Predict the 3D structure of the following.
Amino acid sequence: MRPHEARRDLYRRMAHAQGYRSRAAYKLKELNTAYRVIGAGFDVLDVGCAPGGWTQVAVQNAGNQGRVMGIDTAYTEEVPGAHIIRADITDESVLDRILEYFGKKINTVVCDLSPRVTGNWSVDHATQISLNYGVVKILPQILARKGHAVFKVFDGEYSAEFYTFMRKKFVKVKTTKPMASRKTSSEMYMVCMGYTESG
Ligand SMILES: C[S@@+](CC[C@H](N)C(=O)[O-])C[C@H]1O[C@@H](n2cnc3c(N)ncnc32)[C@H](O)[C@@H]1O
């Protein structure tokens, strides 16, 4: 087994042993340890939540006083402590459902969206970035000033432009690749802290 395969296997076994739905859960755990984007009592939206690993981590960090809503086009089994809806984030009506659930602006949006991949990287990269822009578009209505956001980014020709765009909206943006993210994958994460805009 190659080292990266061994590591992937390790995270899979850890997820199984610790009751997480996905290996991906460890990415958010790691990001949150480093950047504290989800604290106790936070209201959190998890976009592209299936099968629910990040939602579980968000619930753990937000605690009893916080609220977590997960959205995915795919079916997500219920996550105790979270409100899950099956919807497309690019669908206009989804905004009302988010606003209805929280009733006020929220602290953090975490976004691990992946389109159905075609195998053509430039196409997949462009589609993934455009999904992220779909989320950025609704931030003014849902994210409180000083709030945080995490975006998965399929790295490619539009990544720098996305970074610059986010940098205008947040005080600080960190680009990082968690240990739990496969070395061979070209995904990375942008951790955006201190939202400066609000609708
Ligand atoms: C890598 S998975 C997320 C894994 C999740 N963070 C976890 O820890 O279990 C990416 C998800 O994005 C979802 N997705 C893709 N396009 C979407 C869209 N337009 N609206 C909502 N979800 C979408 C996919 O269905 C998929 O479940």
Q: What stands out?
A: Residues 3-195 form a domain with the Rossmann fold fold (CATH 3.40.50.150). The chain has a mean pLDDT of 95.
